[in-house]
Design brief:
Blueprint lengths: L10 H18 L8 H16 L2 H7 L4
Length: 65
């Protein structure tokens, strides 16, 4: 397999690639911990936080709290 240089990506994108790598690794190894939605969400939390933790997102959800 060819190596790639992730340092050319922004830090949030690097985290997203890493999270996806962990997801695929666990799926291939047959680890059932990823089989439920909670574990998948936990793997994605850091990459999604970049989009979710913004003042714009807070304003969009303020009527639902």
């Amino acid at each position: 397999m060819k190596s790639i240089d992730l340092s050319v990506l922004p830090e949030a994108a690097q985290q997203e690639v890493y999270d996806f790598f962990l997801f695929v690794k666990q799926r291939i190894q047959g680890n059932e911990a990823v089989s439920n939605a909670g574990d998948c969400a936990q793997l994605s939390e850091n990459s999604l936080a970049a989009d979710w933790n913004t003042s714009q997102e807070d304003r969009a959800w303020q009527n639902f709290q």
